[in-house]
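Budget justification aside, the reviewers requested a transparent look at the raw inputs and outputs of the sequence design task funded under Objective 1. We therefore reproduce one unedited record. The lines immediately below are the structure tokens for a 92-residue chain.
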């Protein structure tokens, strides 16, 4: 299981149990750093598997969140695989 999958599982479990999520915990920071430092695929970021990356999903990678509005060429508030591909090289 990848760090990203573990983070998603933890977050989903905490939400299902009604537990507050503490942004900035050592584990969350380590997972976010690991995702940001490694190449991230469209599939990894599309957490809800709807075929697009929304702003919430993009926030996992700070650089992608920063570039989101620019990458969203058709301004539909989500990134298609083609829109993501156009900025993917900037995320490494």
């Amino acid at each position: 299981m990848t760090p990203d999958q573990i983070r998603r599982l933890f977050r989903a479990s905490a939400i299902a149990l009604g537990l507050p999520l503490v942004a900035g915990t050592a584990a969350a920071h380590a997972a976010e750093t690991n995702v940001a430092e490694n190449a991230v695929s469209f599939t990894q970021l599309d957490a809800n598997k709807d075929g697009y990356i929304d702003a919430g999903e993009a926030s996992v990678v700070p650089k992608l969140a920063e570039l989101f509005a620019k990458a969203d060429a058709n301004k539909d508030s989500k990134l298609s695989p083609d829109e993501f591909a156009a900025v993917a090289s900037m995320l490494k």
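The longest strand covers residues 53-54. Residues 56 and 65 are 8 Å apart (CA to CA). Computational costs for records of this kind are itemized in the attached budget.
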